[in-house]
Write a structure and sequence with these properties.
Elements (H helix, E strand, L loop, with lengths): L2 H22 L7 E8 L10 H20 L3 E8 L18 H16 L8
Parallel strand pairs: 1-2
Helix pairs in contact: 1-2
């Protein structure tokens, strides 16, 4: 494990997400729905992704706390599979899911969550 690499990933995936949450939290007049993309690398023991997986797990814990203690923020967290993007294309063989197939249901969930509750009829 590389402590510097872990610190870099934590800075981005945990500290950066925390900073975003604190920037959005003060406006309690609006409900904010957010998405935290985690990774199946947490479940897959691959030495090349140890630091990345550790930082994403810290991000998942942060999401749980935000959802529990920040009333106007709600975060959906999903562990994403490897998705075919410009960053993940390789010459070798690697299984990658279609980004649209993976992301579209998540976008729908976040949009549903962001909608205000309907006013009571009466």
């Amino acid at each position: 494990m590389n402590p510097r690499g872990c610190a870099r990933f934590l800075n981005f995936y945990a500290d950066g997400f925390y900073d975003l949450c604190t920037a959005l939290a003060p406006d309690e007049t609006r409900r904010v729905a957010m998405f935290y993309p985690s990774t199946v690398a947490i479940e897959q023991a691959v030495s090349a992704t140890t630091e990345y997986a550790m930082a994403k797990m810290a991000g998942e814990i942060l999401v749980k706390h935000v959802n529990e203690f920040v009333s106007n923020l709600h975060v959906i967290c999903r562990r994403l599979p490897r998705i075919l993007t410009d960053q993940t294309t390789t010459v070798g063989v690697a299984n990658s899911d279609n980004a649209l197939d993976v992301m579209l249901p998540i976008v729908y969930d976040v949009q549903q969550m962001a909608r205000p509750a309907p006013a009571p009829r009466g």
